[in-house]
Amino acid sequence: AECLNFAMVFSVPNYACQRRTTLENHNAVLTDALSLLAENAELEDEDGRGVAFRRAAAVLKALPKPVTSLTQLRGLPCLGEHSLRVIQDVLETGSSSEAESTKQSERFKALKVLTGIFGVGPKTAAWWIRHGINTLHQLRASGHTLNRAQQAGLEHYDGVNRPVTKAEADAIGEIVETAVTSVLPGAQVTLTGGFRRGKLTGHDVDFLITHPEEGREEGLMPKVVSWLESQGFLLYQKTTRNSYLESKDGPARPASNMDRFERCFSIFKLDACGRQPALSQADEEPKPWRAVRVDLVVSPISQFAFALLGWTGSKLFERELRRWAGYEKTMSLSSHALYDNKQSRYLKATSEEEIFAHLGLEYVPPSERNA
Ligand code: DGT
Ligand code: MG
């Protein structure tokens, strides 16, 4: 046994993409408090503040042991004054008074309930709150016009807000696989998002679809969606061309192939086969199915590695990869491509390993991207 008269001092590299962050978290009380403050900042549409709290939480998630004193954190990156104050509060009192009072504030609760509706973001929620709407009941009674996504989101609120299990994700994976291979034999489906990182539950299920022959994936999404619709698997779907053209994420922009990148936001109807049907509201019949949010993305094989890396997450890990690429390597990374601004050329890759190598980073497997 070690004799620790003084606590160990931790050391953590600056960028989350330089670290291995598993799901094992030795500082959950601290990271829960910081994550809640991050969530609150995001709900208040203050993304800068949100990212600062997310980065601080991610540093603590990467530590090999519980933090017992502030002095152990000396020299660690991404811990701002505010985050350190929160950490100190937790270390001294066992909880963060700021996180606790935020959690109990009416505004936080209202923002959380309203943005829980699929298709409702912080701006819409804030606007409704300004107009006296704080609950689903008030929203329904208000007669406010909802778009198609929000109508579906409200209708399937309980299902969409219940965590998805790995078993449910796998069941949906089989359905998507069947749909995809029926409309295009040889096409491939890959589970991405949190489940690829080994998470046991998720808020949705994410899939990436491709075909080993470049170009064969063109026009695939509408066919997959039609198949799913004809079989009664979809409660809602909206297919969009990728939002990447409109995104402000940077100049990484492949000249061609752009319009082939399609995304489908959907709500699946998953039969309760063998599973205990969920009891929704007390006065309702238990439904023999549940609603699950599913995202489908189609990528040409030439961009597959970038799409896979970009859709595996975590969101912070992705953000840090792009920050690393930009600031440390003068490159622009997106879910489509990696552009080297010094050499003025795109760097090709057929695997995630190659992309990490291009970026001068040690390879981090999905299960260790849980920053
Ligand atoms: P969760 O909440 O359990 O579903 O957790 P994740 O990690 O699966 O989070 P999710 O589903 O929101 O997103 C999965 C990854 O996909 C995320 O790390 C970043 C990426 N992603 C999400 N939305 C977009 C988007 O609009 N464009 C691009 N390029 N990537 C996105
Ligand atoms: Mg997900």
UniProtKB/TrEMBL annotation:
Its main location: nucleus. It catalyses: DNA(n) + a 2'-deoxyribonucleoside 5'-triphosphate = DNA(n+1) + diphosphate. GO terms for biological process: double-strand break repair via nonhomologous end joining. It is an enzyme of class 2 (transferase). Its EC number is 2.7.7.7. Its cofactor is Mg(2+). The keyword Ribonucleoprotein does not apply. The keyword rRNA-binding does not apply. It comes from the Eukaryota. One of its GO terms (cellular component) is nucleus. Mg(2+) binds at residues 204, 206, 295. One of its GO terms (molecular function) is DNA binding. It is found in: Nucleus. Keywords: Magnesium, Metal-binding, Nucleotidyltransferase, Nucleus, Transferase. Template-independent DNA polymerase which catalyzes the random addition of deoxynucleoside 5'-triphosphate to the 3'-end of a DNA initiator. One of the in vivo functions of this enzyme is the addition of nucleotides at the junction (N region) of rearranged Ig heavy chain and T-cell receptor gene segments during the maturation of B- and T-cells. Gap-filling polymerase involved in repair of DNA double-strand breaks by non-homologous end joining (NHEJ). Belongs to the DNA polymerase type-X family. This is DNA-directed DNA/RNA polymerase mu. It comes from Anabas testudineus (Climbing perch). The chain holds residues 127 to 497 of 497 of the full protein.
